[in-house]
Every structure is written in C-alpha cells, then in structure tokens.
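Progress report, Aim 2. The chain analyzed during this reporting quarter is listed below.
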Amino acid sequence: MAEVDETEIMMNYHGDFLKGDKKDSRYPYCIVWTPIPILSWVLPFIGHMGICTSSGIIRDFAGSYFVSEDNMGFGKPTKYWRLDVDKVCSNGAATWDKAVHDASEEYKCRPHNLCLDNCHSHVAMALNLMHYDNSTSWNMMNLCALSLIRGKHVNWAAFLKTWLPFFMLCGVLGTFILTFNLQ
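Predicted structure tokens for the chain:
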C-alpha cells in the first residue's frame, strides 16, 4: 500500500476525498448524518449525527453513557457536511481533535434524551469547544437546519436511503386522500 504524505493530504482537504475515504466512511473535518428508521421516514430532516476527527474517525453519541467510534448508531453516513479547519480557533487540527475528544468524554457521562440532549448536542458541544467560526452558540436546531442545507449525500444509494421512504409514504398518503376525496 502506497504511503500518502502530509502535503498530499492537505491538498486533498481543499479538493475532494481520497477514493477510499467514502468507501471506508472517512470524512475528515466533517459532520456526518444518517437516517433513523421510521422517524426519518416521516420527518426526513431528523436523523442521527456524528462528528469526525481530523483523520476521519467518526464519533457519535449513540446512547446513554456511550459515544461510539467508527460505528454510527444507525449505520454508515448517508450525508456529510465538510467544515473548514481554518475556521477553528487557534491550532487547527490539534484543536479540532481535542474538542471532539473532550465532547466525547463529556457525553460518555450523560444519559441520552431524544429531545433535549442527543447526538446533535454532542456535535454542538464539540463545535462550541473549538469555537468553530468564532461561535459558541452551536445547538441542535441550527445543526439540524445547516446539515439539511449544506450536507451532501455520499452517493445515489445514500440519497435514496434518505428520501425514498419519505416519498413512498407521501405517495401512499396522497393516494389514500385522493381515493376517499374523489368518491
């Protein structure tokens, strides 16, 4: 296996992911997202979120007192939102990794609450600790909205995994409504 030098990695950061990155679910400096069965079928903007280290290792608050590493609670990411390491206060990559680590250690001591303290809150804490974009007001609501707007699907299969159940549910519901309103 050929070694990749530091210069090539930094050039790649500003370009696209290396070929193996998406296959291996490596998304350096990214927030990743995957749908939650049933919940995301009805509300496709709600899903499970994690944050990646500078090397692309996914950390996500997957349940009470548990932060997983490279094994997201609801499967591989279907969307990613690449953040700019240059918007991290002070030492870039080192600060990024320390913030992700510190947020993960904090969330290993917390119970999971679907509505108030969840995977989005874990990601928000990491962004607040690193003062990403000179802000300490990251929260689950703005992360949900921004990941919906700025997130990119990993591939077409991921797009279908995210949206197809919702569109099928809408189709069934629309057919049901039309059937009873036309009689």
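Strands lie at 30-35, 47-52, 58-63, 66-69, 79-82, 152-153. The helical segments are 6-14, 19-23, 39-42, 93-107, 119-129, 140-150, 156-181. These observations will guide the mutagenesis work planned for the next reporting period.
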